[in-house]
Design a protein that fits this description.
The strands form two sheets. The protein has a five-stranded mixed sheet. Strands 1-3 form a two-stranded antiparallel sheet. The chain starts with a helix and ends with a strand. It has five helices and seven strands, in the order H-H-E-H-E-E-H-E-E-H-E-E. Helices cover 41% and strands 22% of the residues. It is α+β, with helices and mostly antiparallel strands.
């Protein structure tokens, strides 16, 4: 109401303060939503069903592309990616991984994002790969911890909870998650589902 009714009555300094309060309130709302999701991921019972990862990845990627008109984004999703797990949790996992891939390729033209499958130590392993900002592997241990960020908020938005959610989902499914990256050369997030 303050923004709508009194914005034009404020001077430049007052408008900047009001915009900052609004932006920070929205950021806090996103943080609370993600903390609630993290809590649900930890406690909700797992309902294992056959899951079409290809279909989920296409839906999530389509939504992300639609929200970023004007960007050149090349997305490659391997057909026939299937697994067994909790549908809602696996969708949250792919949403977080793909959202990160889209975010960290924001400075790339074109952005390249790939979802696929490989074998690591004889186990079926899925991955999400991008050609984005990457990160220094010396700090990879911090990646999956709550509120840990390897890039500043001014470079890339976010709350520092997404990869913690990914790790909890994978661990609840008896799997493993890890990443391989190089600064300015992209990142690949690997995961198995037990």
């Amino acid at each position: 109401a303050l923004f709508e009714d009194y914005y034009h009555q404020l001077d430049e300094k007052g408008r900047k303060f009001l915009e900052r309060v609004r932006t920070e309130a929205q950021r806090m709302g996103r943080l609370i939503d993600e903390l609630l999701l993290l809590s649900r991921v930890t406690r909700s019972p797992i309902q294992r069903v056959t899951i079409d990862l290809t279909a989920i990845a296409k839906t999530v990627a389509g939504r992300l592309i639609e929200n970023q008109p004007g960007r050149r984004i090349e997305v490659s999703i391997e057909p026939g990616l299937n697994t067994h797990g909790d549908q809602a949790l696996i969708e949250a996992l792919l949403t977080n991984l793909l959202d990160n891939a889209f975010k960290f390729t924001g400075q790339r033209d074109p952005a390249r994002i790939e979802v696929g499958r490989t074998a690591v130590e004889g186990k079926k392993t899925f991955f999400v790969r991008d050609n984005g900002a990457g990160f220094d592997m010396a700090f990879s241990e911090k990646l999956f911890s709550t509120f840990q960020r390897l890039h500043s908020p001014s470079e890339f938005s976010g709350t520092g909870i997404g990869l913690a959610i990914v790790a909890r989902i994978i661990h609840r499914h008896g799997g493993r998650v890890w990443a391989v990256a190089h600064l300015e050369k992209g990142a690949t997030f690997f995961f198995t589902i037990g």
